Amino acid sequence: MCRWLAYSGNPIQMETVLFRPRHSLIDQSLRSRLGHTTTNGDGFGIGWYGRHSEVPFRYRCLHPAWNDTNLREAARAIRSSMFVAHVRAATDTPAQETNCHPFRYGRWLFAHNGQIRDYPTVRRDLMMEVAPELFRWIEGSTDSEIMFFLALTFGLDREPQAALERMVGLIEDVGHRNGIEHPLNMTVCATDGTQIVAARYSSERDSRSLFHSTSFRHLRALYPDDSSITDAGDAAFLVLSEPLVDLPDAWAEIPEETVVIAKDGRVEHHRFTPRRPGFELPANQPTYGREAS
Question: Which keywords does the record carry (predicted)?
């Protein structure tokens, strides 16, 4: 499928997580250890927020990430306090630039790993549910981009978790009506530059891998001379498909049916429950929250 990561914290060079670690995202594009596919070479993308712009920047390319010298240069030059990076393994749609993640609308970025099963069968039904005023902004042909625009339709800007739950509920409803037993498998990330919202869910309860960092303070104590860790700050946070280094207690696996929200130095876990069309759930309460550390 794909591999992705999202970072928030003090501004750091992107190469800190894209290239430097032993099992960096670029290494994962060649040698994924936990992915459904070992190689993720059908394009890549990075999206980041600048100091004086609400609309995030993007660089996307259909070439393999490990073979793009411009990406290495950009990752060395760009410093950002919040960014998303993604390496793609295509499923039902072609390798082209408009199909590379992250997708963008306004100040939002969105990345996805997984698939809507039998997507050609349900594509029309799902596309018809996208708000008319948003439809013109769809650029590519992936199931992932439709997921993003459905979430926007359902109020991603107002209630991110609820919007993602409504998006999943609709996909499962449409899939089941078309005889698809397990319509969706996903890990997703949405960010507006102030928060990271990441969810792990699949219809068959067997989602792709997803982890988050546990303690940059702990890492700093272990590696006091590593400027990349020191620069990130104690409140830095990473959510990612696979750990970047083999270090005990540095990573926590995000459970099935869970959404993680990182904002203002706090990380909260909530139960992720799809909302079927026409059915509303009471607001979820955090199962726990902590200061990012």
Answer: Glutamine amidotransferase, Hydrolase
